C-alpha cells in the first residue's frame, strides 16, 4: 500500500510544507519506503521527479523540500510495493500525453486480477496494476472524447469508467491534466480547503508549523487531498467509499 | 539554436563530469540560457528533469552536478529559443511512451515551414518545431513497426524518415529508448569514445579535469555525443552532414 498527496490551487503555490510532512512517511514515520515521486504542472509544462530511494533519504526529495516550485496542480506518491518490483519504472506518478496535454496519475491500493485489454496506444512500461489502470483509463478517455473535454465532461466519463476498475480491489487515485485534480476514494482519502482567513497549521509527521496568513493573499484558495491527514489542527473531510471529487481553482467543484 | 549532449555506455555511468562543462554553456560560457533539460534511463524507467531557468543557475542542474545518477543512456539539452516561447513545455528533451517503452528526443536546429499532419496519437504539448518533429517521428515509427523494433531495424526506419524533416532546415537530434542512442547531424555534432586505456580529460568550459582511469574498469565503454567538443585533450570525431549514427554499449555500431 502507498500514500497519495494532491494539491489544487487557484494561484501557483508551493507544496513544500505539505510535502515535508508527507515525505517523512516515506521510511521515517511510516513504512512507505519503496520509492516515491512528484509531478508539478507549470502552465502546460510538467516537472516530474521519481526516485526508487525512500523519500526521507532521497537527494531529489531534499531538493523538493528546499526549492519552492510553484504550481496549481501537484500529485505526489510514496510507495510500499505490493505489485511490481522496486524499480524506477514502477514509481508513481505516471505520465502520458493525450490530445496535446500531459496527464498525471498516482494510485494507492491493490487491484486483483486486473488485466484489461489495452488495444490503443497506451501501454505500461513497468509491471504495476496501477500503471495498467492508468493506461486503461487513458484508452477509454481517448475513445470517449475527440479532444480535451471540459472538466465537467471528463468527470462524467470518469464516473462511468472507474467502477469497472474499482471492483477489482482498492482504487484510491489522483489524476490531473493541469486544469483540475480528480480524486477517487475506495478506502482512504481526506481533503482540506485552505482559504481566507488562513490559519496556523502544525504537521502530524514533523516538528514543523506554518502561519499560512503570512504566505498568502486573501484571494488564495488551496485544496489538499491526502491518504491520511497531514496536520493536527486543520479540518480534514473524509471521502466516502466510491466517491469521485474534482477540485478546480482550489475548491471542490 | 541550442546544444545537445548524449551519452551511451555499456555499464551505468554518471554524466556529472561532462554535464558540468555542458551546463556552463547554459548562460555562462555561452548564451543558451532559455531553459535546459536532461533525461536518464534507468532500466526501463526514466528520470526526466526540465527547467526554464538557465542551466548555470538552476537548482535542479546543481542537483544533477552533485548527485551522480548512473545511467546507460542520457540525453541533455540547453536551449536558446528560436521557435516557441520560454516555457517549461518547450524545454527539451521531450518524452513519449510507445510499445510500453519511453522514448526521449532532443533537437538542435531550426525547421522552417514544418507542419506535418499528425493524425495518430502523438501531439505536441508546447509550440516548438522540435516537438512537432518528435511527434511526427513517433507517429511514423508506430506505423512502421508492430512492436519495439531491433536497433538495426529502427536505424533503417530512421534513415528513411529523417530526410523528409531535414529538408526543412537544421535537424541535429538525439533519440533514445534506453537500448541505444541515435544521433543525426545536419550541421554540428561530434562524438568521442572513451575506453581502455582511459586517459585524463580537461573540460573546455570549466576548470575541471578528471582521470577516467580512476573511475572505470578496463571493460567500460562510454560514447559521448555533443554539439561542440567538451574537452581539450580527447579525440572528437565530427559527424558528416546528413549522417545518422547509432551508439550501442558505448560504441558506434
TrEMBL record, chains A, B:
GO MF assignments: transferase activity
Q: Which PROSITE patterns match?
A: GATASE_TYPE_2
Q: Which InterPro entries match?
A: EgtC-like, GATase_2_dom, Ntn_hydrolases_N
SUPFAM superfamilies, alphabetized: N-terminal nucleophile aminohydrolases (Ntn hydrolases)
Alphabetized, the UniProt keywords read:
Glutamine amidotransferase, Transferase
Note the superkingdom of the native organism.
Answer: Bacteria
In this chain the Glutamine amidotransferase type-2 domain maps to: 2-250
Q: Which Gene3D superfamilies does the protein's record reference?
A: Glutamine Phosphoribosylpyrophosphate, subunit 1, domain 1 (3.60.20.10)
**What name does UniProt use for this protein?**
Class II glutamine amidotransferase
Amino acid at each position: 500500500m502507498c500514500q497519495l498527496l494532491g494539491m489544487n490551487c487557484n494561484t501557483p503555490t508551493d507544496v513544500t510544507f505539505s510535502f515535508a510532512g508527507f515525505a517523512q512517511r516515506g521510511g521515517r514515520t511510516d513504512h512507505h519506503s519503496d520509492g516515491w515521486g512528484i509531478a508539478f504542472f507549470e502552465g502546460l509544462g510538467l516537472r516530474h521527479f521519481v526516485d526508487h530511494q525512500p523519500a526521507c533519504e532521497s537527494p531529489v526529495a531534499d531538493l523538493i523540500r528546499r526549492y519552492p516550485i510553484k504550481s496549481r496542480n501537484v500529485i505526489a506518491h510514496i510507495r510500499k510495493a505490493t505489485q511490481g518490483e522496486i524499480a524506477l519504472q514502477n514509481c508513481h506518478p505516471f505520465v502520458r500525453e493525450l490530445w496535446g496535454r500531459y496527464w498525471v496519475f498516482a494510485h494507492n491500493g491493490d487491484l486483483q486480477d486486473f488485466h484489461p485489454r489495452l488495444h490503443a496506444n497506451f501501454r505500461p512500461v513497468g509491471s504495476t496494476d496501477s500503471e495498467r489502470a492508468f493506461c486503461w483509463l487513458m484508452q477509454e478517455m481517448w475513445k470517449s472524447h475527440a479532444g480535451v473535454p471540459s472538466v465537467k465532461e471528463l468527470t462524467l466519463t470518469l464516473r462511468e469508467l472507474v467502477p469497472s476498475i474499482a471492483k477489482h480491489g482498492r482504487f484510491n487515485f489522483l489524476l490531473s491534466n493541469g486544469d483540475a485534480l480528480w480524486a477517487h476514494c475506495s478506502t482512504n482519502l481526506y481533503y482540506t480547503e485552505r482559504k481566507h482567513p488562513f490559519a496556523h497549521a502544525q504537521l502530524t509527521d514533523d516538528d514543523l508549523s506554518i502561519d499560512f496568513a503570512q504566505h498568502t493573499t486573501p484571494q488564495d484558495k488551496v485544496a489538499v487531498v491526502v491518504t491520511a491527514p497531514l496536520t493536527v489542527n486543520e479540518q480534514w473531510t473524509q471521502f466516502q467509499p466510491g466517491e469521485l471529487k474534482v477540485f478546480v481553482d482550489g475548491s471542490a467543484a
